[in-house]
UniProtKB/TrEMBL annotation:
It holds the Pfam family Lactamase_B. This is Glyoxylase, beta-lactamase superfamily II. InterPro entries: Metallo-B-lactamas, NDM-1-like, RibonucZ/Hydroxyglut_hydro. Residues 10-209 form the Metallo-beta-lactamase domain. It comes from the Bacteria. It comes from Pseudoalteromonas lipolytica. Gene3D superfamilies: Ribonuclease Z/Hydroxyacylglutathione hydrolase-like.
Length: 254
């Protein structure tokens, strides 16, 4: 087993290679579809049909955006959490889907990337829905661990033999420091997910948006102190900024 780390549009792409099959640890951006296709066919000199499984850890644009297109090209299956329903359901889901695509474009701008088409379906049509602690279909050396908090359906992927884990957006690095992501919809679930990761004690941790790290290099006590007590969401952020602007206006008029 070998894990290739590929530079994606705004995130790391982890492609797991075996002699007879390939697996993507996340569904990438829509803008990454050609990147994955070219890497498999040109760098690895393998047919795209060797891609057998695409895992979607959660529904954000840089984790689910390329999944359907890559399945159509390769014939791979899609696996995801068995959380009930669709993340982007209803009117709120439509607005949140649009907001998350806009946030992905904002991140791309910060990385000096040109704007690319990131549109993807807000509904995921998966082939497998994974219970916590279940092994991945046809990749039974990998285990799906439910790590919600960022959303209600985040999963992390643990390679049992090497004690190496991909945690997607469970932690992000800002100005060189690991911290909780934005948003955190479910703070209590998020705290439990961090405590589970700490107790698991994997040897190495792979992140969606920073370099792989050894477990001993992560200050869990500092990170746990940063866990929000209340949800940090798009709408709460907008409301807080609106209140701040209103207070400044009142202050200037007084």
């Amino acid at each position: 087993m070998h894990i290739h780390t590929i530079e994606g549009y705004i995130q790391n792409i982890y492609l797991v290679e075996y002699p007879d099959k390939l697996m993507l640890l996340d569904g990438c951006c829509r803008a990454d579809v050609d990147t994955v296709f070219n890497y498999i066919t040109e760098q690895l000199n393998r047919p795209l049909t060797d891609l057998k499984l695409i895992v979607v850890t959660h529904m954000h644009p840089d984790h689910a955006g390329g999944a359907h297109a890559l399945r159509k090209l390769s014939g791979a299956k899609i696996a995801t959490s068995n959380a009930p329903g669709q993340w982007y359901k209803g009117l709120d889901g439509i607005l949140m889907h649009l907001t998350d695509i806009a946030l992905a474009w904002w991140v791309a701008g910060r990385l000096n990337k040109e704007r690319r088409n990131l549109w993807y379906s807000r509904y995921l049509d998966a082939d497998y829905y994974l219970a916590t602690d279940s092994t991945l279909p046809d990749f039974d050396d990998w285990q799906a661990l439910h790590t919600p908090g960022h959303t209600d359906r985040d999963i992390s992927l643990y390679h049992i033999p090497t004690e190496r884990i991909y945690i997607a957006d469970l932690l992000v690095k800002v100005k060189g420091q690991l911290m909780p992501p934005f948003p955190v919809f479910y703070p209590k679930l998020y705290l439990n997910s961090l405590l589970m990761l700490k107790a698991l004690k994997p040897q190495r941790i792979m992140f969606a948006h920073s370099n792989e790290m050894h477990i001993d290099d992560i200050d869990f006590e500092h990170i746990l102190a940063l866990v929000p007590k209340k949800p940090m969401t798009h709408w709460r952020s907008v409301k807080a900024k609106a209140r701040q602007a209103l207070n400044l206006k009142r202050f200037s008029q007084s």
